[in-house]
Design goal:
By secondary structure, this protein is mainly β. Helix content is about 0%, strand content about 25%. The protein has a four-stranded antiparallel β-sheet, with no helix packed on it. Strands 1-6 form a two-stranded antiparallel ribbon. Strand 4 and strand 5 form a beta hairpin. The chain starts with 7 loop residues before the first strand and ends in a 5-residue tail after the last strand.
C-alpha cells in the first residue's frame, strides 16, 4: 500500500517555519516548511513569515534541468545563479550550502516522466490492449504501478484500521 496527501502547511499565526507530518499506520513522514528565503552574501536569509504554503513539488528543491524535479526551486546549473531556496525540505537533508542538492520532498505523487517513477517502466510493444484479460510480462515489478515517494509505502496492504494523523496542514 501507499498513501498520497494533497494540501498546504498551515499555521494560525504567521511563522518562519514549521514541521508538517503525516502518519498512516506504521509509516511516518515529516517535511520542514519555511517561508521564502534567498541566498545572501552571508548565507541564507531569514525566512519571510507565512501562514499557508502549498506542499507540492513547485516549492521543493529542483529547477530547470534538474531531472528529479524540473518544476521546483533552489537548483541552478552553477552556484552563482542560485538565489531562491526551496520552501519544503527534508529534516534529514536541510540545505546549508549552494552546492547541496537534496532529493525533492513532498507528499504528492511523482509525475510518470520523472526518474523516480520512469526507472521502473518497461516498454512492451506487443501487449494486446484489446483483450478482456491483460497478461503482463513477468518482468514488470510492483514498483511499476506505484506513484508515491518510497517513504510513503507500506510493506503490506491496508487493513482498514490504520490510524491516520496529520499535523500542521490546512484543515481543508
Amino acid at each position: 500500500g501507499e498513501f498520497l496527501v494533497y494540501g498546504a502547511a498551515y499555521s494560525t499565526q504567521a511563522t518562519r517555519g514549521l514541521g508538517v507530518s503525516v502518519n498512516v499506520g506504521d509509516v511516518f513522514k515529516i517535511v520542514m516548511v519555511f517561508g521564502d528565503r534567498t541566498w545572501t552574501q552571508f548565507g541564507i536569509s531569514e525566512a519571510i513569515p507565512f501562514k499557508t504554503i502549498p506542499i507540492n513539488y513547485n516549492y521543493a528543491f529542483g529547477g530547470n534541468n534538474y531531472a528529479l524535479n524540473p518544476i521546483g526551486k533552489g537548483y541552478a546549473s552553477t552556484a552563482e545563479l542560485i538565489s531562491q531556496l526551496p520552501n519544503i525540505e527534508s529534516p534529514n537533508q536541510l540545505i546549508v550550502s549552494k552546492s547541496d542538492k537534496p532529493e525533492p520532498i513532498g507528499f504528492e505523487p511523482y509525475p510518470p516522466e520523472w526518474p523516480q517513477r520512469s526507472q521502473y517502466f518497461i516498454n512492451y510493444e506487443n501487449i494486446d490492449l484489446s483483450t478482456t484479460i491483460l497478461n503482463l510480462p513477468n518482468e514488470i515489478k510492483p514498483e511499476h504501478f506505484y506513484t508515491a515517494p518510497l517513504d510513503q509505502r507500506m510493506e503490506d496492504f491496508f487493513h482498514g484500521h490504520e490510524k491516520i494523523e496529520i499535523k500542521n496542514m490546512h484543515p481543508l
